[in-house]
Amino acid sequence: MSFPHLLEPLDLGFTQLKNRVLMGSMHTGLEEEKGGFEKLAAFYKERAAGGVGLIVTGGIAPNMRGRLAPHACQLSFPWQVSKHKIVTDAVHQAGGKICMQILHAGRYSYHPFSLAPSKIQAPINPFKPSAMSSRQVLGTIKDYASSALLAHKAGYDGVEVMGSEGYLINQFICSRTNKRTDEWGGSYENRIKFPLAIVKAIREKVGKEFIIVFRLSMLDLVDNGSTWEEVVQLAKLLEQAGVSIINTGIGWHEARVPTIATSVPRGAFAWVTEKLKNEVNVPLIATNRINTPEIGEQIIASGQADMVSMARPFLADAEFVNKAAANQSNLINTCIGCNQACLDHTFSMKRATCLVNPRACYETEINFTPTKNKKRIAVMGAGPAGMAFSVYAASRGHDVVLFEAKSEVGGQFNLARKIPGKEEFNETIRYFINQINIHHVDLRLNTKLDANVLAQEKFDEVVISSGVVPRDLKLPGFDDPRVVNYQQVLNGEVEIGQRVALIGAGGIGFDMAHFLCEKESSTLQPDKWLKQWGIDKSYQQAGGLTEEAEHTPSREIFLLQRKTTKMGKGLGKTTGWIHRSVLKQHQVNMKTGVSYEKFDDQGLHIKIDDVTEILAVDNVVLCAGQESNRSLVDEMKATGLPVHLIGGVDVAAELDAKRAIRQGAELAMSI
């Protein structure tokens, strides 16, 4: 498939973008690291060389009070320009264009010096902001303009003004967070003076031939957010004030609606950008869960937007646009929206990277250079770790034979992709299969690797990536055929009744509950998904919210854990709340502090706080973790060959593809 609309240049009058693809803003953590701007330059340079039309950096504060964290990056002083020039020079050398995002966090600032329109604490932040004085409001407008001018001097092609996601500008716009009684509060006209004054001040400083992107919150997804009429009014005034492009912002960070996780349908919010299309003349950018050139082409070709923004897809694959232009979209390493190595890292103050591409943000540290000592390597197990190692090692020139006992590659990903909302995992398997073919990995399916095979063929080293096996519980009655493990259920080996107890409430327990609750994945049915989360496409109420659709449970499910801590505490930092919300929607009964006694014809006998209870269930599903599949490790080591363990066979923690793929990459780099 060709992508003529996606790859068509966009003329802004004073400059032209080579295609309709924007690399959206992402904070990587490199901005604050020692030597981080050199690493950031390498990161952006690869994406510019990869063909993206316009890059937007992570958020840079216009002053100290606006920083996201105490030591977060800001651009306020001339001496800071030289660091940014390292980045812009690298991007321009690769033939790209780049804008710096100016972001004042407002009440989202994670430090005690935060400022906001009003003294109202965010529900996701322990720090309560101070209300800005009129003088501080005017000073902040000036700081935005000064930061934009410094960005201009640093060689940026433009700036993006972050006016959405619940940050400072959004806080001024909405009555939810703006309770001021002066000229910056009260009526909507007063509340939008702040963003308009910022855009006008920037345009006056930088002149006409400089890109100004405004990230406009088109759908707040919180109570007392903007109405649709207000969104349109502000968009028109922003156009008059001199913005070059309007980018779509979806949801505040405190909104209880998922907006970018893997369970969100592809292109789920393009409809709101389309609603604005006939109201303004400046180009509009659609955003959120656009992760393939096909969906990008569809959005632009259908007239929903003029450009598409993709952030995390460029973590997953720097060559995204070049591959699309070469009609090789099947070779793109697709973002699966897992958040595990990007947003989860960012919100934990770690450097961002990517589960499916561990080189992301490590371009100066992880590289697969041609080997000077070619080896023949046997790899046991074609799960994420084994596939990653095999591909990366083969790309260096090693002769790799990948043994898989089953009839297909993928390992635990073949189970994960069956969970509603995790269909994207198919893309990672597709990517690695293509890479296995491209790099001539000798893949042997339905073939076990053992000492006999090693004796018959000459190998230099052995890599064991045989993964994990479900942990059994040795309790009375647990040998009953009605007690099964999660793999048996996902593989369709057993029939499950209407009343089910799940033992173990980690990621597997939550996934199993979701699998048993949802007969048809709402992720593949966008309108159903929007109703499920109470998103109103007719936009009748402020913020775009309506009542969530009611659910009739298809099963009665008990999710049980031994620990007394909060259910799902160990789930992803930015996605755990989504999983808990889904199970509440399906009325899953969650119990903590559970001791398991036995299973018999009455059901599962449990004890909570020394009180015995019998759950009259048809089945018990064991989701109580895994053990390393080390059945042949000793046999392999006995051959005398160097043996390496990666993935679950090395550490059987909660299923951790991020660690498995990274281990595979690091071993391949060093072997």
Automatic annotation (TrEMBL):
Domain spans labelled NADH:flavin oxidoreductase/NADH oxidase N-terminal: 6-327
Source species, domain of life: Bacteria
One Pfam family in the UniProt entry: Oxidored_FMN
CDD domains assigned: DCR_FMN (cd02930)
Keyword Oxidoreductase part of the UniProt annotation: yes
Ubl conjugation is among the record's keywords: no
Name of the protein in its database record: NADPH-dependent 2,4-dienoyl-CoA reductase
